[in-house]
Amino acid sequence: MRLIKLLLTFLPLVFSASGNELTARNYHGRVGIPKAEELRKAELLSASRIVGGTEVPEDTPIAHQAGIIIILTTGWTSVCGGALVSESKVLTAAHCWDDGTNQARLFTVVLGSTRLFTDGLRLVTTKVDTHPSWNTADWIYDIAMVTIPTIEFTNNIQPIPLPTMEDANRDFSGLAAVVSGYGKTSNAQNSIPITTSLYRTTVTVIPDSDCQVDDFSTHAGQLCTSGEGVVGTCDGDGGSPLTVVVDNSEILIGLVSFSLGQGCETGLPSVYSRVPAFLGWIEANL
Predict the structure, then answer these.
(1) Which of these ranges, 146-150, 164-168, 228-232, has the smallest mean pLDDT?
(2) CA 48 to CA 24: how far, in whole Å?
(3) How far is it, in rounded angstroms, from Cα 72 to Cα 106?
(4) Where is the Peptidase S1 domain (predicted)?
């Protein structure tokens, strides 16, 4: 994740600031597959880490964070993130399962670990339900529910509370939010050595009116965070959680979808699927 000067992989998807079409299509080919191989090699080689952002300590992983290792129908491996929401359900981005060019065959969900390819509880599943309105033309309904074998919670593996129905119309603008992921920490990371650990950073939720670039405008199912100070998400973070504290409780409000700019350090906003907008669908699939 782009936590140092730095969207969730997005990031995995990118919207060109020149007004071109969303270039999220073929996320796995452009980002996920290369990133998966880099992470695997780096962990095996104990490669050095890039300084920046906040590295999550190995002994205290983010309890709701899920890493997702993706096997595509082509046999290639890709990567994404997700959020644990119950003992058998993980929320992620729909593009992690189907990006319009590549179709996933199975997920290995990794819980309780700051590394993707080593350690933690590892659960294989093929049960992934994307939102029925998801399509790769507009990327608006970029959310999916992953069903995993039922687990027991531990100190290092806990679900993130979902928003309430009262939060459905809440304006989170101005709130400090935390986004976490296993993705890149800078544009320079196109080969190993790279960071292999889970990172987190604090970003600010911004009004929809501040999340405009040329032809792009947000949908009710999306929300944005500011890229000011060059912070945000980067390649490999797709589907990862965005959380805020409301009434003294940390809740899930977003899943990394894409960023408004080419590269990780543009200073432009990152775009997320707005979790409160999908509460009805989420609860029907829990």
Answers:
(1) 228-232
(2) 29
(3) 7
(4) 50-286
